Each structure stands twice: as C-alpha cells, then as structure tokens.
Amino acid sequence: MKNNKENCPHCNADLQGEPILKKHQGSYNATHFTRKIGISDIEKDRIVKWKYPDCEGEWGVMSHTKYK
After folding, report:
1. Which residue of 16, 22, 38, 54 pairs with 47 in a disulfide if CB–CB is 3.0 to 4.6 A?
2. pTM for this one?
3. How many CB atoms sit inside 10 A of residue 59's CB?
C-alpha cells in the first residue's frame, strides 16, 4: 500500500494528510489521505492540476509544471 509521501513542489511542505483507518486502507490503497486538492476540467472530465491550499501553489498532474 502507498504511504502518500510527497511534497509540494513550491514550498516543499509534506502533503501527507491524516491516517486512514486500517479497516478502510484497502479501499483507498493508501495509508494516509493527501492534503493536495485536485482541480478538474469539466470538458476534459479529469483532474488537470493539483493545488496545495497552504501556499496556494499549483502544478500539473502529468508534467509537474509549476503554476503560480
């Protein structure tokens, strides 16, 4: 299972969120939630970039290109 260890490319903050209850970890295939927010595009019907709410930094899903 993934432990979701990743950092914001803007401020280097840890993006790992609260732990997921053991009985639900299999459903999420992870041990912790994430603090990043997925920004969707209605026309593309998918997440196109991520945002970290503390520093307001945004980056691309596939390219990790920084926005803002």
Report:
1. 38
2. 0.79
3. 18
Show the tokens assigned to 48. Answer: 């196109």
The Cβ-side half-sphere exposure at 18, using a 13 Å CA radius, reads: 3
- 36 SS3 class: coil
Q: 2 pLDDT band (50/70/90 cuts)?
A: low
Residue pointed to by tokens 């295939």:
29
Q: How far is CA 4 from CA 16, 42, 68, in A?
A: 6, 26, 24
CA distance 28 to 13: 22
Helix (H) or strand (E) holding 23: helix 22-28
Tokens read off for 18: 């609260």
